[in-house]
Design goal:
The complex is a heterodimer. By secondary structure, chain A is mainly alpha-helical. Helix content of chain A is 76%, strand content 0%. Chain A has a single domain, classed as Four Helix Bundle (Hemerythrin (Met), subunit A), CATH 1.20.120. Chain A starts with a helix and ends with a helix. The mean pLDDT of chain A is 89. By secondary structure, chain B is α/β, with parallel strands linked by helices. Chain B folds into three domains: 113 residues, Rossmann fold (3-Layer(aba) Sandwich); 236 residues, Hypothetical protein af1432; 131 residues, Beta-Lactamase. Helix content of chain B is 50%, strand content 13%. Chain B contains 18 helices and eleven strands. In chain B, helix 2 runs parallel beside helix 3, helix 6 runs antiparallel to helix 7 and helix 7 packs across helix 10. The longest helix of chain B is centred in the N-terminal third of the chain and has 51 residues. Chain B is elongated, with a radius of gyration of 31 Å. Chain B starts with 9 loop residues before the first strand and ends in a 27-residue tail after the last strand. Classes of the chains: A mainly alpha, B alpha/beta.
């Protein structure tokens, strides 16, 4: 699978990230680091514990990472939950996290596949 | 290019996401040395440790423990932001965040997602801009330094010509300058009736060297006559003040120069008396410019305490007494108070060698110039000195195998020497130490409270303190002595800004002191070092 195909699978912004990173090699190098990034896990844990301020920061970090890597789908949902947690932490519902989880898993699987071909 | 030879500039990346840090590091590590901090507090600790060795900070906003804006606040408070440029990199798209960042002094703001090439260009530009600015500041300060040195040199040569003819040692002019400076500084502390800026004081001090230039026109038979003057000779001698003044007045092109104006006043009126019975004009009280009043007093003091062809030297105390009793002319009562106030320092300063006095004053003037040109900030020269001191300190403290520490109140940061940190089991740099768990484990609450009380009992005059405490060393509670020095701010109402010190072993006690921990932590022992 090429980097481009990987991004197509997750509706990522391949052109954008290619322009910013100047080449597939570098995209790949950092895209696979996403697999080890702990911000999603941290988001789940903090939400479970009801620590909304920490959760906000985790969501914010996740959003930033996705933005850099052009993971548009995951970026959109993490951006949404970030703003919810920033503005109305009390109105958080489980479905918001589920939305993020779904996109996260999709992205994770695609990037995992990319990594295995390296 | 010689790029490879020079040591690489350091960039500090402060971002809580390891991924973001590594992307940024990847972009920059080819040309720069990259330092990373995972939150604001670690970032501040690194800035505290390395200071202006860091050429640039890339700063995220949303971070745990201490966010980007708090880091900027600390950088502003410590004025680090003047020397270390900051580029904010954030996914924070809210316009007010961007505005706030610029208002807090960041050089640039890069939004995520960032472009590889744009980050590289902006980083290079910002570092180059600051480097250029520092270079220019260095050039300007060097020139100012040269200029002031040359001017001082010319004045010194000129006044030596006069003294040489006079058969004097050459120290008279230096003494006059030293006394004049001490008196003027004391006067500024005492009253605001004669408001003088640092520049004006420097000017008077420099001009004071010229007070006797008129003596060049006095025949040397009179000038160097060992015995008493006849009335006629005395009248001729007295002309030196007005002659000196007219020499300066004849410099028609330079009448507007402040130095010439001040020197004119000093030459003409340094033999006036406060009661109006002096010469050449019989000016009275405040009609005599303050510069001339001060130089007159300095001149009398130095004449009294020096040996001359016609007299022996009086002691410092005797000279002081004679001036205060009005045996050698009348002076402004405020100046008499000043003379009394500085009398202790006076003797000490005058005893310092010629070269010492001279170069020290030059350096001080130079430093003052810098301080009065705010836009210049800290010059390259001072930065280099600071870096050198820092390096020296770190080297010696690493050799000494002592538990040395430094604490600053704002921001509250405790820095412990490398070896000390190891033995105490805490990190080398701790932000907000009183809220830190490791520190709380090492010291009992009451111990910290006692230390605090001891510290608060010091004064700017007696800043050294000693106290005993129990602390965990290598995991074991031991009784130790803390010797420290409290740092007080300058100014009229000094406040406590931090302390430095070390933890030392208590020699006369056996090592096994663990049991003491159970009892209430005993005595507060403050022994001012002075009493020893």
């Amino acid at each position: 699978m090429t980097v481009k195909e990987c991004y197509e699978q997750i509706q990522g912004d391949y052109e954008g990230v290619f322009a910013r990173f100047r080449g597939d090699e570098r995209i790949k190098k950092f895209a696979v680091k996403f697999l080890a990034d702990g911000s999603f896990e941290s988001l789940c844990n903090t939400l479970n514990a009801g620590e909304y301020e920490e959760a906000f920061r985790a969501a914010h970090t996740l959003k930033g990472v996705c933005q850099n890597l052009g993971f548009t789908g995951l970026f959109q949902v993490s951006d949404k939950i970030t703003e919810e947690l920033r503005n109305h932490p009390g109105s958080y519902t489980l479905s918001m996290l589920e939305e993020v989880r779904e996109e996260y898993q999709k992205t994770f699987t695609a990037v995992q596949a990319l990594k295995e071909e390296m | 290019m010689e790029k490879k030879n020079r040591s690489r500039e350091k960039i500090l990346i402060v971002d809580d996401s390891e991924m973001n840090r590594s992307i940024l590091a990847d972009m920059l590590e080819e040309d720069y040395e990259i330092l990373e901090a995972a939150d604001g507090q670690q970032g501040v600790a690194m800035l505290q440790k390395l200071g202006a060795e860091i050429s640039l900070v890339l700063l995220d906003i949303v971070m745990p423990v201490m966010d980007g804006f708090e880091v900027l606040a600390v950088m502003n408070k410590n004025q680090w932001i003047k020397d270390i440029p900051v580029i904010m990199i954030s996914a924070e798209s809210a316009p007010d965040a961007i505005q706030r960042a610029y208002e807090q002094g960041v050089s640039d703001y890069i939004s995520r997602p960032f472009d590889f090439w744009v980050v590289q260009r902006r980083v290079v530009n910002t570092i180059m801009l600051y480097a250029k600015q520092k270079k220019l500041i260095g050039m300007v300060t060097d020139q100012m330094y040269e200029k002031e040195r040359d001017a001082n040199l010319m004045v010194t040569i000129l006044s030596h010509i006069v003294e040489f003819r006079n058969g004097e040692s050459g120290l008279h002019v230096v003494h006059i300058q030293t006394i004049t400076e001490l008196l003027l500084e004391s006067l500024q502390r005492k009253t605001d009736r004669y408001p003088l800026s640092h520049e004006e004081i420097n000017m008077i001090v420099m001009a004071s060297a010229l007070h006797d230039i008129g003596k060049i026109a006095i025949p040397s038979e009179i000038l160097n006559k060992p015995g008493r003057f006849t009335d006629e000779e005395y009248e001729i001698m007295k002309t030196h003040s007005s002659v000196g003044a007219s020499m300066l007045r004849d410099l028609s092109l330079y009448q507007q120069e402040p130095l010439v104006k001040v020197a004119y006043e000093i030459c003409r009126w340094h033999h006036e008396r406060y009661d109006g019975r002096g010469y050449p004009d019989g000016l009275k009280g405040e009609e005599i410019p303050i510069g001339a009043q001060v130089v007159a007093m300095a001149d009398v003091y130095d004449a009294l305490t020096s040996e001359r062809v016609y007299k022996k030297a009086f002691s410092h105390e005797k000279a002081l007494q004679m001036i205060l009793n009005g045996e050698c002319g009348t002076f402004n009562p405020l100046l008499k108070e000043c003379l009394l106030d500085v009398s202790g320092q006076l003797q000490e300063k005058l005893e310092e060698s010629f070269s010492n006095v001279k170069s020290e004053r030059e350096m001080r003037n130079f430093a003052e110039e810098i301080r009065h040109h705010e836009e210049l900030g800290a010059s390259n020269r001072t930065l280099r000195l600071l870096e050198y001191e820092r390096m020296k300190y770190q080297f010696f403290s690493s050799l000494s195998q002592e538990i040395q520490f430094e604490y600053t109140v704002s921001p509250a940061i405790l820095t412990v020497s490398e070896w000390g940190a190891k033995r105490l089991g805490i990190s080398e740099i701790t932000v907000n130490p009183w809220e830190n768990e490791g520190i709380r484990e090492s010291w009992e609450k009451e111990e910290i409270q006692r230390l605090r009380e001891t510290v608060l009992q010091t004064t700017p005059e007696e800043p050294v303190f000693r106290c005993f405490c129990h602390t965990k060393i290598d995991g074991k509670v031991c009784r130790r002595q803390i010797v420290g020095r409290v740092i007080w701010s300058e100014g009229e109402k000094p406040y406590y800004t931090g302390l430095i010190g070390k933890v030392i072993e208590v020699l006369e006690e056996p090592e096994n002191t663990v049991n003491q921990k159970n009892g209430p932590c005993s005595e507060v022992e403050i022994e001012r070092s002075r009493e020893e």
